[in-house]
Design brief:
Blueprint: E1 4-12, E2 17-26, E3 31-35, H1 42-50, E4 57-62, E5 65-66, E6 77-80, H2 92-97, H3 102-106, H4 109-116, H5 132-144, E7 150-154, H6 162-179, E8 183-187, H7 190-196, E9 199-204, E10 207-212, H8 214-219, H9 224-230, E11 234-240, E12 244-247, E13 250-253, E14 258-264, E15 269-284, E16 289-295, E17 300-305, E18 315-320, E19 325-328
Parallel strand pairs: 3-8, 3-9, 6-7, 7-8
Antiparallel strand pairs: 1-2, 1-4, 4-5, 9-10, 11-14, 12-13, 14-19, 15-16, 15-18, 16-17
Helix pairs in contact: 4-5, 5-6
This protein binds adenosine-5'-triphosphate.
Enzyme class: translocase
Protein name: ABC-type quaternary amine transporter
Organism: Kibdelosporangium aridum
């Protein structure tokens, strides 16, 4: 059965719409990340789905039910906002129990959910006695408690520091899986979208530019815009003739003909053999390094490597591993 279906959605503020005929399907039980730059309309999409903003056109269905005219509280939607927004005067238990009937409160659902989000012993605490990450866990438990048709999450990790964010992402994903919940997560963070979601919808110009698995979005982007948005890239203008292109890194087989752009991911550039290159700069990341290289023709490219075995000023060589992408017509 289909979870959430959005068809031809047009919505905005005033005359110029932010969403311009947006189509999106969130399959039941899936976590779909909506990824797009700041201001592209991600929050607007969530607000329309939640019933907090009226669209100019389009249709939204949840579990096959048309949501038009249904008020927010009767849509069967759970919301996890950017910063928990817990009721400050209620304990953790009472926050989670808030949307439940008396029977549901008695049948242990609250304890089950607190357990699921790793806060089994925190029921009697007040929100002010919790860390930011713990507050987000309570917000998720509260949203999941009434078994909504879909959970909407608006940048739920953005207020947390990097390490905590990573841990919470994994736990949120596990909690959603365990409950079989359908969820839509809004983020402008590429790593987050690719790392946590079953499917990623890249939003651009008020519509979905591509919907696919994280692997599809990263390795087979629909166009140059999506490719550049979802990760770092080394690009060259090039012309494809008879199925190949010539670049400062060598000749590669590609699909397509004519002038366009070649795109290679920095982790595809391996050091040690291949085209001559001088090491210009090395940026250490802990788990690896980004190495800025100057090729013989003066072009500079970035390589991402494991470990740091080269130093600025040294000479090395660089070769490309794996398929090279080519976008005909997309000249930079
Ligand atoms: N209440 C409002 N009145 C007028 N314009 C608005 C209002 N809310 C948002 N906008 C505008 O609509 C556009 C989309 O906003 P929205 O908040 O949906 O973007 P977003 O993708 O969620 O951005 P961010 O990642 O920064 O949260 C922006 O240009 C914003 O300035």
């Amino acid at each position: 059965m289909t979870g959430l279906v959005v068809k031809g959605l047009v919505a905005g503020y005033g005359t110029d719409p932010v969403l311009r005929g947006l189509d999106l399907v969130v399959p039941e039980g899936a976590l779909v990340a909506v990824l797009g730059p700041s201001g592209c309309g991600k929050t607007t999409l969530l607000r329309v789905v939640a019933g907090l903003h009226t669209p100019a056109a389009g249709r939204i269905e949840l579990g096959g039910r048309d949501l038009a005219g249904i008020p927010p509280e009767r849509r069967g939607i759970g919301i996890v906002p950017q910063e928990g927004a817990l009721f400050p005067h209620l304990t953790v238990t009472r926050n989670v129990a808030f949307g439940l009937s008396r029977d549901e409160r008695r049948n242990g659902r609250v304890g089950e959910l607190l357990d699921l989000v790793g806060l089994a012993d925190f029921g009697q605490r007040m929100p002010s006695e919790l860390s930011g990450g713990q507050q987000q866990r309570v917000a998720l438990a509260r949203a999941l408690a009434p078994k909504p048709g879909v959970i909407l999450m608006d940048e739920p990790f953005s207020s947390l520091d990097a390490g905590l964010r990573d841990e919470l992402r994994g736990d949120v994903r596990a909690a959603l899986r365990a409950t079989g919940a359908t969820a839509l997560l809004v983020t402008h963070d590429q790593e987050e979208a690719l790392g946590v979601a079953d499917l990623v919808a890249v939003l651009r110009d008020g519509a979905v530019a591509q919907l696919g698995t994280p692997q599809e979005i990263y390795t087979s982007p629909a166009d140059l815009g999506v490719a550049l948005f979802v990760g770092e890239a080394v690009t060259f203008p090039a012309t494809a003739t008879q199925g190949s292109v010539e670049t400062p890194l060598g000749r590669f087989g590609v699909k397509g003909q004519g002038a366009g752009t070649v795109l290679i991911r920095p982790e595809q550039l391996r050091l040690g053999e291949g085209a001559e290159a001088a090491v210009v700069d090395v940026r250490f990341h802990g788990h690896g390094a980004t190495v800025l290289l100057r090729l013989r023709d003066g072009t500079q490219v970035r390589s991402r490597v494991l470990g740091t075995h080269v130093k600025p000023g040294e000479n090395t060589a660089v070769t490309v591993r794996g398929p090279v992408l080519f976008f005909p017509g997309n000249e930079l």
